[in-house]
Design a protein that fits this description.
By secondary structure, the chain is an alpha/beta fold. The chain is built from five helices and five strands. The chain has two domains: 29 residues; 104 residues, Glutaredoxin. 46% of the residues lie in helices and 21% in strands. Strands 1-3-2-4-5 form a five-stranded mixed β-sheet, with helices on both faces. Strand 2, helix 3 and strand 3 form a beta-alpha-beta unit. The longest helix is centred in the N-terminal third of the chain and has 25 residues. The chain starts with a helix and ends with a helix.
Length: 137
């Protein structure tokens, strides 16, 4: 009895996942459930390509950046299909860092339809970061 119920639940979940994948393909792409790595050269293309993009400006030596990284990863999974997260290493991409006058890291920019709509500085915990991102969905 329990095995049958588990099998029904698995089948239902599989159908739901297949439907999300099919709908995503019809919209022209797969669901991105992890942060993209972007560079000076791919920055503009990325923020213009997706309706809502959160760009995490960071550096490997930055302890607060490393603290917020798992939160970004988690939100990328939870908000997949609604928000695309991207990471920009400011040490390796000085043009964008200068263009956006990034003076402290981590700094996160939220873009909606290619335009910056919010800036978040510091390593915010998930319960503070998530509502700031959801506001733009």
């Amino acid at each position: 009895m329990e095995d049958e119920e588990i099998a029904r639940i698995k089948a239902k979940k599989l159908r739901a996942m297949e439907e999300r994948i099919r709908a995503s393909k019809e919209r022209g792409g797969g669901v991105i459930d992890h942060p993209l790595t972007i560079t000076d050269s791919s920055f503009m293309e990325t923020v213009r390509k997706y309706p809502v993009v959160v760009v995490d400006c960071w550096a490997p030596w930055c302890a607060p950046c490393r603290m917020v990284s798992p939160v970004i990863d988690e939100l990328a999974r939870e908000l997949a299909g609604k928000v695309v997260f991207a990471k920009l290493n400011v040490d390796e991409n000085p043009r964008i860092a200068a263009e956006f006058a990034i003076m402290a890291i981590p700094t996160m920019f939220i873009f909606k339809n290619g335009e910056p709509v919010d800036v978040i500085q510091g390593a915010l915990p998930k319960q503070l970061l998530e509502p700031r991102v959801r506001k733009w969905i």
